Amino acid sequence: MKTEQQGLYLLDVMCTLVSLLCSCFLLIICAMTQLWKTTSIRLVMYLTLGNIVTGLILLIPTYKYTFMCPFQEHVLHFALFSEIIWGALFLHYAYMKIVLEKKFTRVFEVRYLAIALIPSLLFSLPPFVPQEFGNNCWDGIHTPLETVVSSYGFLVLYTIATLCCFGFILGIYYYFKLFEKGYYTEEYENKYKKIRLIGRYSLIIYLSAFILYIYGILNMIGRHKRSLDFIALMFHALCGLFTITLFLSSTKVQRKMSEYFKSQAITAEILPEDTANFTSMTPELYSGFSD
């Protein structure tokens, strides 16, 4: 392994460890504060689980264990596809919940999981992936991410998902245009804040995926840029950090965390009966010192 390639793998390990720590911290917060009972938070948790899968699979040193190379790239392919689909599902959730004002039931949640997982699993199997999968994980100037994004499957899925997101955004924009200026109600402000928060998750997913999109196109046309190896791998490995940053910026999350830690704070209080007991013991203490 060349020095430059070692530096790239070291960057991958460092960013992945940061992402894993952030993802685990997010799940712990949701478990402690009971935030997992909120539907939108559960969607974020599903995305976080995908980030954890991405981080764990990127830590495999396939430059040593080359027999693990096909497994690494297939799982990475699955995780990347599911993240892109979740980006579109977040906007669909915002459109359905806020614009159409439909109730998000368990049936919808199961459908979301099926939409995110089943296509990602199918498209990561051998019939749907390039033949060069698993041949050059860290060989020469290659990375596991390079082969995954340099495929027509990734490029087509990203394009279709982006068009779907654009359609949801137009629907949301048209809905908010119905509110006339000067008549913005409290309902309007609350809905707008929710839309902005949910939209940020989709935005960060598609911005990082857009870097991979450009990276894949350049590799496919033979315009490989070594600097893009570092940029693309760093952005994809840090997906957990981006997720928890948006998660902690939510006022609902901040309020829940504040309430939880306040309830856990131990306040030392002296009760009236404790004061009486202490007073009754005082003469005995003085008699012990009289000698």
Structure description:
The structure is a single chain. Helix 3 runs antiparallel to helix 7 (186-220). 76% of the residues lie in helices and 0% in strands. With 291 residues, it is mainly alpha-helical. The termini are far apart. The protein has a single domain, classed as Rhopdopsin 7-helix transmembrane proteins. One of its GO terms (molecular function) is G protein-coupled receptor activity.
Instruction: Determine the mean pLDDT.
Output: 81
State the separation between the terminal residues, measured CA to CA.
82 Å
Provide the helix percentage: over 70%
Element-by-element helix/strand order: HHHHHHHHHHH
User: Which stretches are poorly predicted, pLDDT < 50 over at least 5 residues?
Assistant: 267-271, 285-291
CATH architecture: Up-down Bundle
Structural class: mainly alpha
- Number of helical segments? 11
Kindly provide the radius of gyration, computed on alpha-carbon positions and rounded to a whole number of angstroms. Answer: 26 Å
Number of strands: 0
**What best-fitting shape do the alpha-carbon axes yield?**
globular
Q: CATH superfamily name?
A: Rhodopsin 7-helix transmembrane proteins
Strand portion: under 5%
Q: Please outline the major beta sheet.
A: none
The CATH topology label is Rhopdopsin 7-helix transmembrane proteins
